[in-house]
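Fold this: Protein lifeguard 4-like
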Amino acid sequence: FLRKVYSLLTMQLLATVTVIILFTFVQDIKDFVHRKLSLEKISAVMYFYFEKEKCSCKDPISQELVFKFSGFLRKVYSLLTMQLLATVTVIILFTFVQDIKDFVHRNDWLVLVSLFATIGLLIGLHVKRLDHPVNLYLLAGFTMVQAFTLGIVVTFYSQMVVLQAIFLTFLVVAGLTSFTFQSKRDFSVMGSGLFAALIILIGVSIIQIFFNNSLLDLVISFAGAIVFSLFIIFDTHMIMQKVSAEEYILATITLYMDILNLFMYILRILEALNRQ
């Protein structure tokens, strides 16, 4: 029963994201649905709501900055949506297709290939992040490698746990993003504390490898989920306030990796609770 529920729910979410992408990129649909109110105007209104003390609507220069900012946000979240859609599709294939599971489990070397490919693509993205369209090709390659790596990981988890983790991650990310967009707090002060927490988390995770304690693993998983939830808030705020409009590739990768790490920790939490 639960498998049917979460399978149907996952397909619903995939269908919804697909429709959102169509409404975002197909101009005829945009014109038909919204002839008088463009996405730029909506984004501008949102921006003025958050930044009304920093610019004047009557100033042409400020208006130009607002439209540039709205275009930046549109690029970031459009690319991020496509990344997540591709990643979820790969995860579902690796979770439900037994032949793929068997192939992955028989070929351990695939993990090393994906690791070196990730490093190479990250270096390439750092060097070519402002070089269009090379940066988009590299981003697509990076997304597929990360989706493949995550697909390998989920083959060791039950189907129900994977579907639950996808659903919970979607809810958490949507809630945190909405909260950050609406909040007027300065989350940039969280930066140093979050990076310190990340270093501690990595150190404790390395120690856990040698002790293999189930309770410690559960504590680390909860801590990791909290840390990367806060990173989503922090990075979303930085994208809105600090990141240059030309750095949309960097912004997209940052949010994408935050979400993937959050998914991994939620997956570990659900698996641990399921065992108990």
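The chain is about 85% helix and 0% strand. Residues 77 and 252 are 7 Å apart (CA to CA).
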